[in-house]
Structures are given as C-alpha cells and as structure tokens.
C-alpha cells in the first residue's frame, strides 16, 4: 500500500494522539494532561502554523482525540466515513499545496490561521479518509494484547499485525505462551 509521506505522518499523529487517552499509558492517566504535553506532540511532529498554545487548545484537541477514537472503534466503513466527514467539516478545510520546512510538495487541508485542533482534525481526518477510500479501514486497529488496546495502523503487507509493538506486547504474549507450553509439558 503506497501512502504519501504527509499522509503517513498524519496517521502517526492520529495514533499518538489517540494513545494519549486516559487508560492507554496506565490506569486513569491522560497523556494530554497539560498544555506542555500538547506542545511536546506539536514539536515531535513539527506541526506548523499553530501559534502559542493554551488551555483552550488543549481542551479542543482532547475533543478531537475523542472523535478520532470513535473512528478507530467504528464497526464499518460507512460509520467511519460519517464520523470523518463530520470531523473534517467542523475544521473548515481549505486544501492547499505547500513545500515548507524542507518538505517536498504536499497538501495541507487546514485553513490558514486554524487552531491546532482544527489543524489536526483537517489533516489527520483526511489521512483517515484516505484509508477509507483505499478500502483499508481494517488497518485502523487496537492492540490485541490483554490490557493494552493501544491504537495503531497496520501497514504490514498482509494485514497481519496484531500488536501495537511486537517487541513489547507481542513478545510478552509469545513468552507467556511459551512458558504455558513448558509448564503443560512438565506436567
């Protein structure tokens, strides 16, 4: 599956944002508890044109995060598309080509002067729309490891990825299964 660079980054942002929801980084913890957490996310992904961030931005981004979570939980493409359409429409999209900060030409969907929440809703919403249009909604997944449930986008060739991280969740389950087989064999 060929995904343009800017769409891939937007999908990474969506995943990171969804995984900040309470309960993803430990019981009851919110990965976006403070404006500084939002600033860290903005810096990590070099999100441009967002200005100074405040509590209002944080509250709006949390709302967008909840809406993205609903897309990951959508039972079918029709439901997901309705959620994405409302999300993108609420952001007041204004597609435009740009080649800023050393990146080659790509499309920004947010309007000039948009808030960080509108920016995320537009660009990340369009990345999720790309997955629906490509018939790839099933690639928007949750980790199958017990007690995890973190979001990820399965970009494996055969859509076989089951865990958010094979080195942690996947390995932990494989080791547990191995130990259970050893105990059973030892009798």
Structural key phrases:
ABATE_dom_sf; 6 helices; Jann2411-like fold; two-stranded antiparallel ribbon; 187 residues
Brief sketch in words of this structure:
By secondary structure, the chain is mostly helical. It has helices at residues 5-18, 35-44, 55-73, 77-90, 116-133, 166-186, and strands at residues 96-98, 106-108, 140-142, 151-153.
If you had to describe this structure to a student in words, what would you say it looks like?
The strands form 2 sheets. The chain has a two-stranded antiparallel ribbon with strand order 1-2. A two-stranded antiparallel sheet has the order 3-4. The model has no long low-confidence stretch (mean pLDDT 88). It starts with a helix and ends with a helix. Helices cover 51% and strands 6% of the residues. It has a single domain, classed as Jann2411-like domain (Jann2411-like fold). With 187 residues, it is mostly helical.
CATH architecture: Orthogonal Bundle
Count every helix, treating DSSP H or I runs of 4 or more residues as helices. 6
Mean pLDDT: 88
Largest sheet: 2 strands, antiparallel
Question: In sequence order, what are the helices and strands, one letter per element?
Answer: HHHHEEHEEH
Head-to-tail CA distance between termini: 46 Å
Radius of gyration: 18 Å
Helix content class: 40-55%
Q: Could you name the ranges where pLDDT drops below 50 across 5 or more consecutive residues?
A: none
Strand content: 5-15%
InterPro entries: ABATE, ABATE_dom_sf, Znf_CGNR
Organism: Streptomyces pacificus
Protein name: CGNR zinc finger domain-containing protein
Domain Zinc finger CGNR: 139-182
